[in-house]
């Protein structure tokens, strides 16, 4: 399935899955091939420029459902907190230095939470805002993305990717 198909339900989770599908293709074949694959569903043979550093991009499981009942959620939540899960930590991290940054944090949000005004929090909690402030002061890049396409654009810009041809997302 292409990232477009994976994101069809338009949930935060589906966009995050689509983003990681894109990253998997880019890691093995490069951004240009990942763009092509996203549109047509296959990769051209003998055209590869892998972004091997993408093998280290990962999801940080700090949200989502923790069980079906209040009791099971409480037990699971307590266990995860004891294991180190922290409220407010971003969804995605890429420990790849770029320019003056130490790494890239991406906070994915539901497309419906995209703010209409620049003064809006855009679905971010107080803890997420606090985390964003902390990591940016520490030299990390922090971005909020509402779709997998926004996250891909952010990733490419962070990496300094300049396409050889016109981007298929335009």
Structural features, described:
The chain is globular, with a radius of gyration of 17 Å. The longest helix is centred in the first third of the chain and has 18 residues. It has a four-stranded mixed beta sheet, with helices on both faces. With about 170 residues, it is an alpha+beta fold. Strand 3, helix 5 and strand 4 form a beta-alpha-beta unit. Helix 2 crosses helix 3 and helix 2 packs parallel to helix 6. Helix content is about 40%, strand content about 10%. The C terminus is likely disordered. The chain has one domain: Trna Endonuclease, Chain: A, domain 1 (3-Layer(aba) Sandwich), CATH 3.40.1350.10. It is built from six helices and four strands; from the N terminus they run H-H-H-E-H-E-E-H-E-H.
The CATH class turns out to be Alpha Beta
Structural class: alpha+beta
- What is the straight-line distance between the termini? 21 Å
Number of domains: 1
Level-2 CATH architecture: 3-Layer(aba) Sandwich
Strand order of the largest sheet: 1-2-3-4
Helix content: 40-55%
* Rg calculated over all Cα atoms: 17 Å
Output the CATH topology.
Answer: Trna Endonuclease, Chain: A, domain 1
Individual helix count: 6
Low-confidence stretches: 166-170
| Percentage of residues in strands | 5-15%
N to C succession of SSEs: HHHEHEEHEH
Short description:
By secondary structure, the chain is of the alpha+beta class.
List the helices and strands and how they pair.
Blueprint: H1 3-6, H2 12-29, H3 31-40, E1 58-59, H4 70-83, E2 92-94, E3 104-108, H5 126-137, E4 141-145, H6 148-159
Parallel strand pairs: 3-4
Antiparallel strand pairs: 1-2, 2-3
Helix pairs in contact: 2-3, 2-6
């Amino acid at each position: 399935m292409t990232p477009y198909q994976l994101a069809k339900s338009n949930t935060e989770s589906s966009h995050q899955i689509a983003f990681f599908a894109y990253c998997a293709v880019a890691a093995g074949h490069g951004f240009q091939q990942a763009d092509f694959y996203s549109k047509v569903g296959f990769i051209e043979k003998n055209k590869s420029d892998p972004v091997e550093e993408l093998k280290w991009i990962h999801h940080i499981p700090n949200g989502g459902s923790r069980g079906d009942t209040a009791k099971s959620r409480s037990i699971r939540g307590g266990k995860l907190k004891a294991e180190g899960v922290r409220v407010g930590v971003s969804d995605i991290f890429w420990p790849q230095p770029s320019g003056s940054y130490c790494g890239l944090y991406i906070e994915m949000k539901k497309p419906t939470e995209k703010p209409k005004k620049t003064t809006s929090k855009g679905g971010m909690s107080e803890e997420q805002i606090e985390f964003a402030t902390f990591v940016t002061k520490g030299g990390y890049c922090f971005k909020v993305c509402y779709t997998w396409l926004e996250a891909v654009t952010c990733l490419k810009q962070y990496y300094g990717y300049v396409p050889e041809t016109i981007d298929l997302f335009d």
